[in-house]
Structures are given as structure tokens and as C-alpha cells.
């Protein structure tokens, strides 16, 4: 998963989007550097804990690379932290309210989806709330399934979504429709119609994986 280029307007490719992507990566890199300093961890020790190479971690700290959504979860799990402690360092405070202004969440991009992480500044929570744009236009049998622990809830904001799963026939959902399913079952998302479908998602972040994701270096 590379990084998202979604701006507040929903359009792609503008200068502000690039700055936002860089800001997300820099924020995670700064947080990692601070955590290493606080716990006296070397890059090699963090690499051993997380399975992410020391070279990639060093580039992340210096703002020279960005992690995909799966890898941010991998980093957090390896360090024994909720993922929100990386995407929003203020989450260490004992807050019980979270607000994300439009277009201001941490952003990530996959080959089939663009994600914005919402309301991540509540301490120690492992549930993820995401706004996503579905870029895929057809089911790709060669693409590995998305899968993760727990359940996933989807609500279609706009457009038309087709959801493929390992155990059921594909289901088509229009704006206003929703679905809840066992997300350990492999699943893929496809947009139907002229415009990309936009959806709200809620899911357990722990154990999230999409093996088609890659580091962007």
C-alpha cells in the first residue's frame, strides 16, 4: 500500500495532497524516533520486534519513505501499541472524544483503495474508523484477499459498491446501504458505475493484512 493522494475536495494529484501525505509519514517517523529515545531501542531492536528492516525504519524517521496501512499496523503491533499511537501521537492522553475535520485524517493508498483514518485521537483503542474511496473497477482473481480479525462494517456514502467474499456471491450496495461481515473471510471491493464508490468502514485494526501491500521507498 503506497500513500493516498486524496485531498479535502476528493480530487487527486494537487499540491496540497502531496504535502498531506508527507505530513502523515513525517508524523509517524517522528513518533518512532521519540519512542526509540524513550525506550532506548536501537533500529535493529525495532526491526526485530516488527519485521520491518532497519534500513526502512531509518528512512521513515528521516522522512525518506512512507509506510502502507498494513505496515503501520505491523509496526504498532510489534511495539505493543495501538496503531493510533503512531498516526496520532496525542492519543497517549486520556481523551474520550475524537474529532476529525474533513480531509484532515492520516491518509494511505493501496492499489485498490484510498483510506483516510478518522477519529484516531482517543487513547488505547484498537477499532479503526476509515473513509475509503474504492478505485478497483473489476474483480481481480490474482489479487490477494483483504482479511483481518473481527468484523467489518461498511456504509456506502456515494456511488455503487460490489463486495466480493470467499464464501458468498458478490453483493451490490448503493448509497445508503450497509453491511456487516466476518472480516477474517477474504474480501475485495469494486466500484461500479462512472464514479468511485466512497464508503465508511469500521474494523478491528489488530491483525489487519492485505498481502498485496508493499512499501513505498
Automatic annotation (TrEMBL):
Gene3D superfamilies: Jelly Rolls, lambda repressor-like DNA-binding domains
GO molecular function annotation: DNA binding; DNA-binding transcription factor activity
Pfam families linked: Cupin_2 (PF07883), HTH_31 (PF13560)
GO annotation, cellular component aspect: cytosol
Residue numbers spanned by region Disordered: 1-26
PROSITE patterns on file: HTH_CROC1 (PS50943)
Biased composition (Low complexity): 1-12
Entry keywords, A to Z: DNA-binding
DNA-binding among keywords: yes
Occurrences of domain HTH cro/C1-type (ranges): 32-86
Annotated PANTHER family: BLR4304 PROTEIN, HTH-TYPE TRANSCRIPTIONAL REGULATOR
Name of this chain's protein: Helix-turn-helix transcriptional regulator
Amino acid at each position: 500500500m503506497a500513500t493516498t493522494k486524496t485531498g479535502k475536495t476528493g480530487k487527486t494529484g494537487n499540491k496540497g495532497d502531496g504535502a498531506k501525505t508527507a505530513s502523515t509519514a513525517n508524523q509517524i517517523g517522528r513518533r518512532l524516533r521519540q519512542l526509540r529515545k524513550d525506550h532506548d531501542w536501537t533500529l535493529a531492536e525495532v526491526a526485530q520486534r516488527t519485521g520491518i528492516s532497519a534500513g526502512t525504519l531509518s528512512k521513515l524517521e528521516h522522512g525518506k519513505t512512507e509506510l502502507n496501512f498494513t505496515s503501520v499496523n505491523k509496526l504498532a503491533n510489534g511495539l505493543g501499541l495501538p496503531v493510533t499511537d503512531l498516526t496520532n501521537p496525542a492519543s497517549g492522553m486520556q481523551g474520550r472524544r475524537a474529532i476529525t475535520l474533513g480531509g484532515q485524517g492520516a491518509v494511505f493508498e493501496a492499489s485498490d483503495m484510498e483510506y483516510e483514518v478518522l477519529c484516531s485521537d482517543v487513547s488505547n483503542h484498537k477499532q479503526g474508523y476509515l473513509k475509503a474511496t474504492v478505485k478497483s473497477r473489476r474483480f481481480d482473481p490474482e489479487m490477494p484477499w483483504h482479511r483481518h480479525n473481527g468484523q467489518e462494517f461498511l456504509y456506502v456514502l456515494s456511488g455503487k459498491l460490489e463486495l466480493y467474499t470467499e464464501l458468498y456471491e458478490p453483493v451490490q450496495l448503493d448509497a445508503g446501504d450497509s453491511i456487516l461481515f466476518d472480516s477474517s473471510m477474504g474480501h475485495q471491493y469494486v466500484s461500479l458505475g462512472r464514479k468511485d464508490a466512497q464508503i465508511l468502514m469500521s474494523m478491528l485494526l489488530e491483525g489487519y493484512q492485505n498481502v498485496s501491500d508493499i512499501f513505498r521507498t
